[in-house]
Specification:
about 110 residues, mainly alpha, Arc Repressor Mutant, subunit A, 2 domains, two-stranded antiparallel sheet, 6 helices, about 70% helix, elongated
Length: about 110
């Protein structure tokens, strides 16, 4: 969510400056609400993953490497690998393929 204009507009800038804190609060509330509504079930084999761990694992299930995931999510490769490693540890598996397999089986049990 953003409050922006295509070109400088003095009236818009005055209003934005006057209500800056209210606009920041609105944007924060919007993001919290969207994240809460879109987060869905992030449980794999009975284990809760963080939104980022789950997201990275979903991309890995689509055949993406940590490098690819980093580019897609706008994070570093090291951060993507960190989230994948955390997901593996939580799921009690050693390999990414095992984690992806658990994700796939948990999805099919939901359907």
């Amino acid at each position: 969510m953003t409050f922006a204009a295509d070109e400088p507009n003095p009236a818009f800038l005055r209003v934005a400056e006057r209500y800056e804190q209210a606009l920041q609060l609105m944007a924060t509330c919007f993001h919290v609400s969207v994240r809460r509504n879109l987060s869905g079930n992030r449980t794999v084999d009975g284990v809760s993953l963080t939104p980022r761990e789950y997201e990275c694992l979903q991309w890995a299930a689509r055949g993406k490497s940590a490098w690819d995931i980093a580019g897609i999510l706008g994070i570093t490769r090291r951060t993507a690998a960190f989230h994948l490693d955390n997901a593996k540890k939580k799921l009690g598996v050693r390999t990414q393929n095992q984690a992806v397999s658990l994700l796939a089986s948990s999805r099919s049990s939901i359907l």
